[in-house]
Write a structure and sequence with these properties.
Chain A: It holds the Pfam family PqiA. The complex is a heterodimer. By secondary structure, chain A is an alpha+beta fold. Chain A is 52% helix and 12% strand. Chain A has 7 helices and 8 strands. Chain B has a 4-stranded antiparallel sheet with strand order 2-1-4-3. Classes of the chains: A alpha+beta, B alpha+beta.
Amino acid sequence: MTTATASEYAAAPDVPIEDLMACPHCDALYVARLPEPGGRAVCRDCHTVLISPRRKAGARIIAMTLAVMILVISALFFPFLDINAQGFGNSTSILDAASSFRSGYMTFLSIVVAAAIIVIPLVRTMLIVYVLTPVVFDFKPWPQARRAFRLSQELKPWAMAEIFAIGCAVALVKVADLANIGFGPAFWMFAVLVILVLVNDNYLCTWSVWKSLELEEE
Amino acid sequence: MACRRCARVWPMGQERCSRCGSRLESRDPASLQKVWAWWVAGVIAYIPANIYPMLSTNTLVSSTENTIVGGAVEIAKYGSYGVAAIILIASVLIPVGKFLAIAFLAISARRGSSVPARKRTHLYEIVEFIGRWSMIDVFVVAILSSLVQLSVVASIRPGPAAFTFALSVIFTMLSAQSFDPRLIWDARFRGTKRTRR
């Protein structure tokens, strides 16, 4: 459902500055107002989604984020994929995949892969739990909550767990005629994890979080 | 003046957003310079990524080294056109398209363009969204080279192109992030009396 509920600033020039919001993509100025349940506010000029609150989103996000954390950590230690060809077999875990670039300057690549598929998604989920728990349960925000939330937003494009999952599919097809491939438990955990991460990001309305952080601290 | 991170509006001249702590800038004057710097770095890293092999496969009978395009052609020969297409799209079409799109956005932000601003913003969002997906090739190499280690029967090792390709993807992501999409929209005030917000 798309409803533009942020009215344009020009219509109400005497609104206090706290109630204004600017579109982060095109700088159009609006009077921020919560849209009706299920609706969302969209920028009239560039169609960027400005506000999209969901009911009970906070508690759901925390629950899903905890699930993500458990899945990431357990997926690390179980075998991910195994392979069999002419009597030779090998199984690999996510950690093996990340550390497969071992020699010389390739180590850098190992660090990048490990960061993109394990460290950054994990750090992001922890930051989000840290920021949202006080908001949901009506405490005073924990120290540095704003910095934590900002960091979690800055890390967003660098968390690539879902891309890794599609990468697995491509890799599987590539070697399918070379050998037999089996899925380990970690593969299924990772599949669930990817879906959770995507749904979670969809639920998080950054504007609402900033607003509540601001209100709680006053 | 607006905060790009949390959309809070502040009076002109304030240096830091008191809500989220980001540095405030009406427009980043060096935005386009940063875009071009990362862009050039990305293009330079992309060249060796296509010349050097991405993977080297050793089997009982043969040892082959494949570049990105070579690998895709090989797979197509075996009849898996779908996979070949995914690889070509993810590692050739998307990176090249991204280079062109960012260059177009940066040039048109300065000179103006006949393409409507809304369409260009849309293009920017696509570039931002799709940029990360180019990493898929690096991940495929990582998975393959840790999985396919079957002593003499078959083993796969990463080649130097994996490294430069990853660099190229990272550089272009940084290039897209340094672009300030508000520059696209500044043109809507051109021609009228415009005060800098």
